[in-house]
Design the sequence.
C-alpha cells in the first residue's frame, strides 16, 4: 500500500518540466522497484544458480534495507570467489559500519581477487583504524594489490597513512609510485 503510493507520486514527477526532478524521480523509482523485489532477491541468493545469485547481489546494491546485510555477509563464507567478490563490492559501496570487521577479515581470504576487492572496499569507509590493516599488505604485494592498497589509503584520507605513502614513492613500480603521489595529495591535514 505504502509502496504503491510512493510509486504513484514518483511516476507523476517523470513529467515534471525540470530535467533534474525527472532524473531524481526515475532513480527513486528504480530503487523502489528493487525494494519491492527484495524478498525475491534474497531467495535467489540462497537458492538460485551461480549467475542469478551474482545478478541478485548487484541488484541489492540499489536496495535500501538493513535486511540485505546478513545475506551478503553469509555469501562471504561461500567457496566461490566470484560470489565473494560481488558481495564484497556491494558491501564496500554500502559502507555499513557493522560490516567493517567482516570486510577486514576478507583481507586474509585464500583467493587473491577477494583480497584485492576487500582492500578496495575498505577504502570506502574512511576509517583511520584501517591503516593498520592495509599498510602491512604492501609487503610482498604484487603491483595490482599494492596500487589498490595505496589508493585505499588515499581514500581513507587519514594523515596516519602519510609515512606508508611516502615510502611507496620509492617503490620500483611506476604505477605504485604514481598512486602514492595521488594519494598523498588527498590526505587530511
Sequence:
Amino acid at each position: 500500500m505504502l509502496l504503491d503510493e510512493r510509486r504513484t507520486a514518483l511516476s507523476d514527477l517523470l513529467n515534471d518540466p525540470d530535467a533534474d526532478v525527472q532524473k531524481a524521480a526515475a532513480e527513486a523509482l528504480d530503487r523502489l522497484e528493487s525494494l519491492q523485489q527484495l524478498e525475491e532477491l534474497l531467495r535467489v541468493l540462497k537458492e538460485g544458480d551461480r549467475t542469478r545469485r551474482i545478478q541478485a547481489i548487484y541488484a541489492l546494491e540499489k536496495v535500501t534495507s538493513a535486511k540485505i546485510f546478513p545475506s551478503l555477509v553469509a555469501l562471504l563464507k561461500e567457496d566461490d570467489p566470484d560470489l565473494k567478490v560481488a558481495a564484497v563490492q556491494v558491501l564496500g559501496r554500502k559502507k555499513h559500519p557493522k560490516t567493517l570487521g567482516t570486510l577486514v577479515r576478507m583481507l586474509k581470504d585464500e583467493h587473491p581477487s577477494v583480497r584485492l576487492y576487500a582492500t578496495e572496499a575498505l577504502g570506502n569507509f574512511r576509517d583511520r583504524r584501517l591503516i593498520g590493516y592495509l599498510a602491512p599488505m604492501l609487503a610482498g604485494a604484487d603491483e595490482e594489490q599494492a596500487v589498490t592498497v595505496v589508493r585505499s589509503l588515499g581514500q581513507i584520507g587519514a594523515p596516519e597513512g602519510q609515512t606508508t605513502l611516502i615510502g611507496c614513492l620509492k617503490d620500483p613500480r611506476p604505477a605504485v609510485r604514481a598512486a602514492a603521489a595521488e594519494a598523498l595529495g588527498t590526505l587530511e591535514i
Summary: Residues 69 and 99 are 8 Å apart (CA to CA). The chain has twelve helices and no strands. The longest helix spans residues 19-36. The chain has a mean pLDDT of 94.
